[in-house]
Every structure is written in C-alpha cells, then in structure tokens.
Design brief:
alpha/beta; globular; binds NADP nicotinamide-adenine-dinucleotide phosphate; about 220 residues
Length: about 220
C-alpha cells in the first residue's frame, strides 16, 4: 500500500488530495493547523498531524512525529495568497513576512526533513502556481504571491538536484481552482484539479525531475 503525505490538508486542494488518495486505498498522513482540520482528516481515515509551516518549533515537532515513516508520495500544499493587489503596491512588512514565510521558508524547512523520509523512487510535488512563472507572465496582479511562488520554484529546483536519483521532485500548477483561495469564479472544480494532479504525478519519470508542470502534465516555462 502506498504511503502518501499531504502537508496543508485542512481544506481546499490538500483536503481533496487526502480524500482521493484514501479512496484509492492509500495510507495517508496529512497535516492541519488546528483541531477542526485534524478532525476532517481523521474522518477520512488519514493519520492527522498538527503543523504550522511558519513555526520552527512546529516543523521540528513534525519531524519528530514522522520519525521512522517512509513516503512514496509527498505533496506540499500549504500556501497563502496575501494581498489582492493589481499593480506595484508596496507590501506591508507583515504581509511580506506572512506570504514568504508560508510559501517559501516553510518549504525550506520541510524539504530537508522530507528528504530523509522518501521511499526509493518517491515522487514529491510542491503546489506552485503559473503565477510564479516569469517566462509565462502577462500581468503584475498579486505580485507578492507571484514572487513567493517564483522563489518556491527555485527552492524546488534545488531540492530536485539534491535528491536526483532518489526521488522525482516537481512544481505543479493546479489550475485556477474553486477553493477558498481560488474563489467561486475559478475555472476548475477541486475534484477535477486533484484528479489531474494525481495522474500527472503518477506519470512522471526520472527525466521529469526538477520540472514545472500544469495539472494536465503540460510543461510550464520557469
Ligand atoms: N486555488 C487555486 O486556484 C490555486 C492556483 C494555483 C496554486 N494554488 C496553490 O495550491 C495550494 C493549495 O491552495 P488552495 O486553493 O487549496 O488554498 P486554500 O483553500 O486557501 O487552502 C490553503 C491550505 O494551506 C494551509 N495553510 C496556510 N497557511 C499555513 C501554515 N502556516 N501552515 C500550515 N498550513 C497552512 C491552510 O490551512 P488552514 O486551514 O489552517 O488555514 C489550508 O489547508 C497553495 O499552495 C496555493 O498557492 C492554488
């Protein structure tokens, strides 16, 4: 039975990943920040752990909690959007810290932990965003979020180099998805996005290590 880890699974895409992986018969370990989120995970039959990716002590506790575990798939879904800006609005220090600490520092704390818990040939995905692509960029809206996802992509690339030959590590864009973050007017139902993401991850080969892909498997320029 495959063992899947989902970080940031209290709601949205992370929660749907847990639902679909459980329905497919996988053993799932997943994280939430509070008791209500953990209860939703337990209801789905996942082992629920508490983790706030912005807290160093929480990340250390998570590392301790997964001692001895080995994952065939790992998904880093935790993320925040931050201020919904249109142009070159200067971010507050608090917004900058919240978005960069969640989307980038969290990954830089957790990827080294996960590196020691990946089964041979494991697949690891960070949920990035097409908004983080510099090559495909056509708007400055949400520039703080864009900067954070561009930085996350850099961090993922480094992880893919460090783990080459041991795991396949990719950045995935889930599409514009109807979640709290994506909003009610988004293109994609969360179930359809997650079905695509899981199919795409499953189809990866070692040659895809370090890539940036759309939910449907199409490459996205950095
Ligand atoms: N929805 C889209 O259209 C879209 C498009 C591109 C990329 N993405 C990316 O996909 C990922 C999931 O997005 P979503 O749409 O599912 O967002 P969402 O519905 O807003 O859910 C965000 C998830 O991240 C968790 N989270 C936030 N801050 C955290 C922290 N400090 N520590 C641990 N967990 C934290 C939340 O937990 P709490 O419940 O505790 O807040 C929640 O489980 C994000 O990385 C996002 O950037 C989404």
């Amino acid at each position: 039975m495959a063992h899947v880890l989902v970080i940031g699974a209290s709601r949205g895409i992370g929660l749907e990943l847990v639902r679909q992986c459980r329905a497919a018969g996988a053993q799932v370990t997943a994280t939430a920040r509070d008791d209500a989120g953990a209860a939703r995970l337990a209801e789905l039959g996942a082992a629920a752990l508490t983790l706030d990716v912005t807290e160093a002590a929480s990340c250390a506790g998570f590392a301790w909690a997964i001692d001895g575990e080995s994952f065939d798939e790992a998904w880093l879904a935790a993320g925040v959007y931050g201020p919904r800006t249109a142009g070159l609005d200067v971010p507050t220090q608090a917004d900058f810290d919240r978005v960069l600490h969640t989307n980038v520092l969290g990954a830089m704390r957790l990827l080294p932990v996960l590196a020691g818990h990946l089964a041979p040939g494991a697949r690891l995905a960070v949920l990035s965003s097409r908004m983080g692509s510099i090559g495909a960029r056509g708007s400055a809206a949400g520039w703080l979020y864009r900067a954070s996802k561009a930085a996350l992509n850099s961090v993922l690339k480094d992880a893919s180099l460090a783990l080459a030959g041991r795991a396949v590590c990719v950045a995935l864009h889930p599409g514009w998805v109807r979640t709290d973050m994506g909003g009610a007017g988004a293109d994609l139902d969360v179930a359809a996005s997650v079905a695509d993401l899981r199919r795409t991850l499953a189809a990866l080969t070692p040659a895809d290590n370090g890539g940036f892909f759309n939910h449907d498997g199409m490459p996205i320029p950095w």
